[in-house]
Every structure is written in C-alpha cells, then in structure tokens.
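To: structure subgroup
Subject: Chain for Friday's discussion

All,

I'm putting the inputs and outputs inline so they're searchable in the archive.
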Amino acid sequence: MWCPYCHHAETRVLDSRLTQEGKSVRRRRECGQCQTRFSTYEEPDFYRVTVIKKDGHREIFDRMKLRIGLERAFEKRPLGDEKVAHVLRDVERLIRDRGLKDITSREIGRLAMEQLRNVDEVAYIRFASVYKSFGSAQSFRKAIESLDDEKS
C-alpha cells in the first residue's frame, strides 16, 4: 500500500480489526519512510453496476462520488462519519439487492434521500437541495414542510 502522505511504497500493517458491522476490515498502517500512521478499510468489491447519467452517458458506479455527496450533507453534523458509512452501506445494499446491471443517477439519489430522511433531517435537506436543484426559498420550504407533515 502506498503512503498517502509521502507516496513511499512500503507501509506495514500495525493492527487489523473488523468494523462494527463486520463487513469490512480496518487496518492501521505505518509508512516505512515518513513514519506517518493512517487507516485503510478493506471491503468486498461491489459488483459492477453501470450508472446512467442525466445526459445519457454511462460510467461504472463509484461509491466515492456518493460518499463525497453524503459527507457534504453531513458536514458539521453529530456522528457524521458514522452516519455517512451507514447510509452508504444501505444504499449499496439496496442497489445490490435489486440485481440490476444499470441504474440511473437519479435513482441512486432517490435511494440516498430515502435513507437520509430516516437518519438526519438536516443532512436530508442539504442533500435534497443539490439533488433536486432547489432554485428558491419556496422549494426549501416545501421540502421542510413535507418532513414536518410526515412527523405529524
């Protein structure tokens, strides 16, 4: 494994353990050159799903793209990292359980929003504002009102 700091090719594993869900392995590593320590996560390879974008072009599902969007939604929220991992895992499971080879980016966004709605309302609104391209305060208001209506 390459060191993410100095890009030296020799790192050693100091510790390995299963994550709480038991679906990935966390490895604590140390660079042989700069002695910087960092963690890596090893997960089963997510089967190949092609994402159909709005403009019609296709690309292989990249969990990091979804992760980045979720991280932005959870920015400065309590337990954000844990919630990102939870939502990401659930969305991937939903996609995998469908057994589809192709899925639209819109459907992935919809699945993420469904999960976010149950996990963190603020993150849900943040994600929805990008996903639905809110163009006015009225759009935000409607999204918030729909959350309030569901709680009632």
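Points worth raising on Friday:
The first strand starts at residue 11 and ends at 18.
The helical segments are 63-73, 80-98, 105-119, 121-131, 137-151.

D.
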